[in-house]
Amino acid sequence: QKTHLKSICLQYQLYLLLNSHFFCLLKTEMGLIIFFLCAYVPKTAAGHCKWAAVLKDLEQIKTSKDIDVSLYTANTDEDVKCQEPVMRCFFLETKVILQECHIKNCSKTQDVLNIWKNGNASLENNKSNSTRSAKCKECEEYEEKNFTEFIQSFVKVIQRECK
């Protein structure tokens, strides 16, 4: 959501610039350059990894000593067709971390909440496109691992998605 907001702000500034002097600008070389930049910027922003904000927050919580919980941890080498259910599993388990943080009053509660919100928002946007393979595991079928191993696997899965 943070990345999307930055993109909108940049697009709006470019819109204001062009709107005020649109026809005058198109008569100059600089105006044409700005016009082409406006057409190009939305494409580059869309190409940015939608999980970047989640990855940043995962880096913030990975060293937390407050969180001591076992979590179902999906395999990082799952079939590409199972990628969406794997991501869902990680975000479901993030909800468990969030509950643990509320109970123990963790110092990283806000970062965990950000991960959960940003992840679920991105997953909701993909819901219509997802097709689940019959061979994909349910979240509870994965091995339970400690918090550190869970975060390491989560980071690997997101990095693979961002390539």
How would you briefly describe this protein structure?
This protein has 2 domains: 1-40; 51-161, Growth Hormone, Chain: A. It is 66% helix and 2% strand. It has 6 helices and 2 strands; from the N terminus they run αααβααβα.
What report would you give on this structure?
The chain is mainly α and 163 residues long. The protein has 2 domains: 1-40; 51-161, Interleukin-15/Interleukin-21 (Growth Hormone, Chain: A), CATH 1.20.1250.70. Helix content is 66%, strand content 2%. The chain is built from 6 helices and 2 strands, in the order αααβααβα. It has helices at 2-25, 29-47, 52-61, 83-104, 109-126, 147-161, and strands spanning 71-72, 144-145. Strands 1-2 form a two-stranded antiparallel sheet. The protein is elongated and about 65 Å long. 20% of the residues are buried. The model is unreliable at 42-47 (pLDDT under 50).
Write the layout of secondary structure elements.
Elements: H1 2-25, H2 29-47, H3 52-61, E1 71-72, H4 83-104, H5 109-126, E2 144-145, H6 147-161
Helix pairs in contact: 1-2, 3-5, 3-6, 4-5, 4-6
Keywords for this structure?
4_helix_cytokine-like_core; Growth Hormone, Chain: A; 6 helices; Interleukin; transmembrane; 163 residues; 2 domains; two-stranded antiparallel ribbon; elongated; cytokine receptor binding
- Output mean pLDDT: 78
Question: Tally the helices: what do you get?
Answer: 6
- Return the CATH topology of the largest domain: Growth Hormone, Chain: A
Largest sheet geometry: 2 strands, antiparallel
Q: What is the approximate shape?
A: elongated
User: CATH architecture of the largest domain, please?
Assistant: Up-down Bundle
Overall structural domain count = 2
Radius of gyration: 20 Å
What structural class do helix, strand and pairing data support?
mainly alpha
Give the helix proportion (percent range).
55-70%
What amount of the residues lies in strands?
under 5%
Looking at how many chains there are and whether they match, the oligomeric state comes to single chain
The low-pLDDT segments are 42-47
Number of strands: 2
Under CATH at level 1, the class of the largest domain stands as: Mainly Alpha
How would you spell out the order of helices and strands? HHHEHHEH
